[in-house]
Amino acid sequence: MPRFRETTLKSTPSVPRKERIKDPKNVMRSVDPAALLMLEKAKEKNLLSAYDRFAAQQPQCAFGYEGICCRICFQGPCRIKSEEGPGSKGICGAHGYTIVSRNVARMMAGGASAHSDHGRHIAHALLHAAEGKIADYKVTDVEKLKRVAERVGISTEGKTANELAIEVSQAALEDFGRQTDEPCTWLWSYITEGRKKKFEDCNIAPTSIDRAVVAMMHQTHIGVDADPVNIIFGGLKTSLADYTGMHISTDLSDVLFGTPKPVITEANLGVLKADKVNIVVHGHNPLLSQTVVNVAKEMEAEAKAAGAAGIQLSGICCTGNEVLMRSGVPIATNFASQELAIMTGAVDVMVVDVQCIMPGVRAISECFHTKIVTTMDNSKIPGSYHYAFDEHHAVESAKGIIRLAIEAFKTRKGKTCEIPQIKNKVIAGFSLEALLELFAALNPETPIKVLTDAIEAGEIAGVALFAGCNNLEAPHDNNHLTIAKELAKNNVFLVGTGCSAQALAKAGLLAPEAVEEYAGEGLKSFLKKLADANKDKLADGLPLMFHMGSCVDNSRAHDLCTMMAEQMGVDIPKVPFVATAPEAMSEKAVSIGGGAVAMGIPTHVGTMPPIEGSSLVYGIATQIASDVYGGYFIFETDPVAAATKLTAALDYRTWKLGIHKKTAERYETKLCENY
Length: 675
Ligand code: BF8
Ligand code: SF4
Prior knowledge:
This protein is α/β, with parallel strands linked by helices. A 6-stranded parallel sheet has the order 6-5-4-7-8-9. Strands 13-12-11-14-15-16 form a 6-stranded parallel sheet, with helices on both faces. The protein has a two-stranded antiparallel ribbon with strand order 1-2. Helix 14 links the parallel strand 5 and strand 6 (331-333). Residues 1-10 have low confidence and may be disordered. One of its GO terms (molecular function) is hydroxylamine reductase activity. Keywords: 4Fe-4S, Iron, Iron-sulfur, Metal-binding, Nickel, Oxidoreductase.
């Protein structure tokens, strides 16, 4: 197709599209040795997975890839085929920039819906538990409940835990459907004053989550908004609704199940055990997965009676992260390699809830004895077992699922499993509270100062949040690992969530040994001081990256960034804090990215979102966003170049803040607010 996009933008990826996928027919697109072993075996047995389907999809449609295919009404699909003439517009006259911005804004709304619907589910469960309507859940972490209540402006005085939980969950539910014009409570309670002013000035503060999403669907209907800037700003409003939903999910999950503390466990397919009943939890919502984990302990005897050595739980994707963080459940694998776990022949039940579950797991399970169990009424896969999960019968459902796994184990007995004997030690469980507790060992009065002082002293270069998915456009896990190693070498303090943290976990980067191997001198000495001060609690040492949880737990990382800003006396655009989604693919990643940029964070994406079809929208994302919000996107598909750009973004902030500070001192004025 004719290409007319400007390619001169500073942050244009250094590798052009046609060279990004070097060998499109190569299905061995992974750097995870366990995944590679399974792919070898799959080839021998002619078993197909996402890796094969990715190859089969090449070359992908360039119109869709660049975001210039519109299917919003069914006069379409309309594709922008030329720079001028009738082919330069959709049938309704929509310009390329309108089409690209509408598509990407709808992705943001999709992501916000997924995260916030999850949050709503948790809020309902907490409300019903506190009202005494459900017996299987209760307020577990009263201290967290009090902290959340105080933060969102609810008095804790004289209230029982249940009374307080009712008020807090009702306040959370109000953030979904408020019809008046106050901004969402969970957004407004956690951000800097500077961000509040910015969001008000730009009119992107959502008043309620549902309304922001509905407004976006309306705004992008045929014949409504044609202005790309207005559409993107509407998209950012849904991104902040996404932030709200994520924060509610994190806070209320902590209240229900406990705030994570450091745990020691393992990751990669080697955590599966041939002689045990293997139950893999996959998806995102901890309501069911945490119950399965809790109940499994009581059912060990049943498993043993069936001839198993016990029950082996493991996790994939973010429900895996939830139970990893709170219960130390090992990680089986991450998004791209989910089908490969089944190909080991060792998985008795894969129990799934919502989001990032490839329908492909069902087809591959047909080749083995594995049962796929869906649990949510909005997330079914034809041909799977469906155990309708509702919080009134959580324990009963969990027991049913575990019994099904025990039955499946019986049919597996005697058959060989092909489990790659590859796994690595993992230290995880770093909620913000846990991280601050580590810092408190060095500075009990102001723990966050440990981090900001180390940055100001030049010992560490700043903080990088690793988030997001796998996307087979990049070889599985390669971007995560390469960027992490490069940043660690450059003394960047690393925190992570989602499949990104899982990629590092599988590769051994969440083990203390990785500090010695990959950290630069400054980071090494910083982590050593921190480890020495915490020897009594964590004798094993500290990891190279601090795993903060699932994707909704990006809210924990946002809180860390906000704390840093408050401690440094600046707004977020001046804080040396960057984010990277090295292998992003989901709508949730788009809304998280939009939220990070609006918060003022330079945000790298290592796989191209569909926006290259409009140089205007590309420019808004990479440059105009920076002028307005202080945050901006860095699109860079080469992981080494990406690490250089991220390091440069951190250095630039530190350098500029230094100049602003010196100027303020010399002229006795207040610190310049520009960025
Ligand atoms: O919510 S990182 S592939 S599992 S979307 Fe999905 Fe992406 Fe993994 Fe977690 Ni987040
Ligand atoms: Fe085509 Fe316009 Fe319909 Fe989109 S909304 S499919 S550009 S006619």
